[in-house]
Design brief:
CATH architecture of one domain: Alpha-Beta Barrel
Helix content: 25-40%
CATH topology of one domain: TIM Barrel
Radius of gyration: 22 Å
Structural class: alpha/beta
CATH superfamily of one domain: Glycoside hydrolase/deacetylase
Number of strands: 10
Oligomer: single chain
Largest sheet: 5 strands, parallel
CATH class of one domain: Alpha Beta
Length: about 250
């Protein structure tokens, strides 16, 4: 082959390869962005979920509270420091899920809020108390990992009140709920809502920009949904979706 012909063949190969690369890039380009969020819960599937996220190279957003775990400790105890440090190193974002994982029930006079605790008792919180309830996970997380939480928070059960939102905003925390289709249903009874039904519903209904919500472990569900995050992420990526952590600001 002559030098000229050889050069032309090389140039053509480069052009064709570049065109193929562009075509492949177009096929894999994001057709929408989703935001997977994970609340602490009982931490039963924390490690398994971390493996699924790493497998699919998905960055998520974790909302952390001091909740009792399946192994008898609490989710923000020093015994969980290595787990949280690993998630920080992976580049996820993190927000407050309150310290005691209580429920903000209703507003009272003077800016106070009725706060129902996990044992069923109730207490009144003022703006400073609400700030402390959101800030304590932040302080503990920084102690465990060397990194403070992002200025995000989520009310347990998604339940807020006007007084609660005002107090949280004044304290520097932005509330994050979830999309209706993004409610993955991992806390619903598995006999009435089997995993296959929840997976099919999510794959059919989730849309661009949706915030998805699941837990690192749920006490009540007999057939855990957590393993379904693997086919869910795979299926949503097949639809052209990309995943991103919630923006911190």
């Amino acid at each position: 082959m002559s030098p000229v012909r050889s050069a032309l063949c090389t140039a053509l190969t480069v052009i064709l390869g570049t065109a193929a690369g562009f075509a492949q890039g177009a096929d894999t380009a994001c057709k929408g962005t989703l935001y997977l969020t994970l609340d602490t819960g009982n931490m039963r599937h924390a490690e398994a979920i971390a493996e699924i996220l790493a497998k699919h190279q998905v960055k998520a957003s974790f909302f952390v509270a001091q909740e009792k775990t399946l192994r008898g400790d609490m989710s923000l105890d020093p015994s969980w420091a290595d787990y949280w440090k690993a998630r920080v190193a992976e580049g996820h974002t993190f927000g407050s899920h309150t310290w005691r994982h209580g429920s903000f029930r209703k507003d009272e006079a003077g800016g106070q809020v009725v706060y129902r605790l996990m044992d069923g008792s109730q207490t009144l919180l003022d703006a400073a108390d609400i700030c402390a309830e959101l800030k304590k996970p932040d302080t503990r997380f920084a102690e465990l990992t060397g990194r403070p939480l992002d200025p995000l928070w989520r009310a347990p059960g998604g339940r807020t009140t006007p007084n609660t939102l005002r107090a949280a905003e004044a304290c520097g925390y932005r509330h994050t709920a979830w999309a209706s289709a993004g409610f993955l249903g991992d806390e619903l009874p598995s006999d009435a809502f089997p995993n296959e039904v929840l997976l099919k519903r999510a794959l059919a209904n989730i849309r661009d920009g949706d915030i998805l919500m699941a837990h690192l472990g749920i006490w009540s569900r007999k057939d855990p949904f957590a393993p379904m995050l693997d086919p869910l992420i795979r299926g949503l990526k097949a639809r052209g979706f990309c995943f991103a952590p919630l923006p911190a600001r």
